[in-house]
Amino acid sequence: MSASLTLVVIMAVLYSCGIYLMLERSLTRVILGFLMVGNATNLLLMIVAGPAGLAPLVGGGVDAAEMTDPLPQALTLTAIVITFGVSAFLMALLYRSWRLSSEDNLEDDVADVAMRDSPEALPDDAPGVEPRVEAADEPVTSADGTTNGGTR
Amino acid sequence: MISLVPLVVLIPLVASALALIVGRRPGVQRLLTIGALTAVLVISVILLVVVDGDAPLVMELGGWEVPFGIVLVVDRLSALMLVVSATVLLAVLIFSVGQGLADGDSETPVSIYYPTYLILAAGVFNAFIAGDLFNLYVGFEILLVASYVLITLGGTEQRIRAGTTYIIVSLLSSVLFLASIAMIYGAVGTVNIAQISERMGGIPVDVQIILHVSLLVAFGIKAAVFPLSFWLPDSYPTAPAPVTAVFAGLLTKVGVYAIIRAETLIFPGPELNPALMVLALLTMVIGVLGAVAQADIKRLLSFTLVSHIGYMILGVALGTAAGTSAAIFYIVHHIVVQTTLFLAAGLIERRGGSTSINQLGGLLKAAPLIAVLFFVPALNLGGIPPFSGFLGKLALFQASAEQGTPLAYILMAAGAAVSLLTLYALVRVWNLAFWRPASDVEGYESDLLANVSEAPGATTTQVNRTTPKLMTAATAGMVVVSVALTVFAGPLYAISARAGENLEGPSYYVDVVFPGSNDE
């Protein structure tokens, strides 16, 4: 099976950039990274289809060996649709997360932080929830006293 | 009979659409959802009887012959998983209906909860009957997307945070799965599982191992096999109680099911079995050590969930029919018991106002029924004879002893120790939450509470004097089912053994999908 070198290079670049972005803390970048990795995987499906050929129509007098493999295209289309739906959900999640905490970063697990900060055992009555220090510099979404009225 | 096969996916999907249409009438929605899942349960039981008595059912979708079309295959393993998952989904649904009715649905937004739940069910059922690797992927995606919605239900800050971890990890596993499918297609030119199985033998062993590992990593994330299990205890406990229960019971087991299929059909060779056994050992031990350190019942149960995945992986990793049978029996037992325990934890939270053993006390006196509903599955999970947890572990140990390698004996020892530690963690919950008088809770000092850590953001909710009858009934129903698994362990184990024998080597499955392939 021969594969197009251009496609392979593009796939590799997309994978590496995508994985780099997914390792970031910012949710926006994670979503961008996911889109890149998803598209890289779609490209991988196209690559395994082999070189492009004629349209795979049965009965057109075309030899099967000269046809493009149609199955990976069907798989890719399905995968694109799934990626599309999931991305839409992720955007909504990102927006909700931003509305709630006014920040884009994924926070540390509070239990992990508590464990890291105190090597000793936690006292019985301290669940290890740290006061949120960033409350002071929150944006002005609550200036008018509502949480829903934001036009930003 | 064959026409019943696609119905297990179609009924939940159609019912979900209808439930969305009648979103403004919660009563109709509830009836529709319960009706749909009951129908699927009945169909699954029929399928199990038919498949166990006769040959597996193979449905060629759209009338396209294999390998050109998509096939749905129901063999003994699939049918058994269908019956158990339908039972669990139905019981949890009734539990959540009870909770919703009592709480005025503040916890579960009416209009989307039931349709999403049905989609999740459709995805789980689809994954169990897929005879095609890509269809398995689609089944995974259906259940995952539904689970994304369920885990962030209500959109509170804590759930969004925990849900984000879960969603990103799941996305990564999906992408890996898809990439593995692409590479497998590149290697063997098909996505039909039976055909892959036939052709995989002709592929060089090193290429096989690459494909095998990439597929196992994708499934391992789903099944929460160490070291890919870190996301689970962080994300499950924050979801609403019924959602956690169904996730804990079913979603990881879909991953284990996929691993069984991969190990027995696609890569039946023994190359990776020792590695899998080591992973099983680590999953068991590290999972249960996590459980011992938790004060929060839901987190504790999440860690035992991870730990007990190790037992199933052990059964699969043995690579023998006995090992696979024991793993199948253990999956059935564990789905039921783990779900029951999470439902019981939901009841405890409602009655005691918390799920932290530091704050609970006197529940035995206050709510004796809940005490029984927690105690029975707790002993069962800990592996006390004569419960099915004991029988499952016994079967696993027998299969390990049959193999007789040093590694197998180490795993047996670890398995026994892990079951004791599980028992320790659960009995501590019993001692503190149920046995300790409520008056002792303030300023209580005990060695049992040294070094346990609380869940992040643990909140106490209002103590409800009454628990809705429907919630208690659903949990009681699950306890009865779990005890029934013990009483009818003989027939159940016989089915598991037959399913395991069918999976010894891929030839049985391949013959079923391609009836004429032996003549070549």
Task: Describe the protein.
The complex is a heterodimer of chains A (152) and B (520). By secondary structure, chain A is mainly alpha-helical. Mean pLDDT of chain A is 74; it is low at 121-152. Chain A has one domain (5-52, 67-126): Helix Hairpins (Orthogonal Bundle). In chain A, helix 1 runs antiparallel to helix 2 (27-48). Chain A is 52% helix and 0% strand. The longest helix of chain A has 31 residues, at 71-101. The radius of gyration of chain A is 24 Å and the shape is elongated. Chain B is mainly α and 520 residues long. Chain B has a domain at 272-441 and 468-487. Chain B has a two-stranded antiparallel ribbon. In chain B, helix 5 packs antiparallel against helix 10 (241-266), helix 8 packs antiparallel against helix 10 (241-266) and helix 11 (273-292) packs parallel to helix 17 (406-435). Chain B is globular and about 70 Å long. The two termini of chain B are 29 Å apart. The model of chain B has no long low-confidence stretch (mean pLDDT 86). The interface between A and B is large, with 42 and 43 residues.
Keywords for this entry:
heterodimer, A: 152 residues, mainly alpha, Helix Hairpins, 4 helices, 0% strand, elongated, B: mainly alpha, 2 strands, 2% strand, globular
Blueprint of the fold:
The complex is a heterodimer of chains A (152) and B (520).
Chain A: H1 5-22, H2 27-48, H3 71-101, H4 110-117
Chain B: H1 7-21, H2 26-53, E1 57-60, E2 71-74, H3 76-103, H4 110-129, H5 133-151, H6 157-188, H7 193-200, H8 205-223, H9 231-235, H10 241-266, H11 273-292, H12 297-318, H13 321-352, H14 363-366, H15 368-382, H16 388-403, H17 406-435, H18 469-487, H19 489-502, H20 507-513
Antiparallel strand pairs in B: 1-2
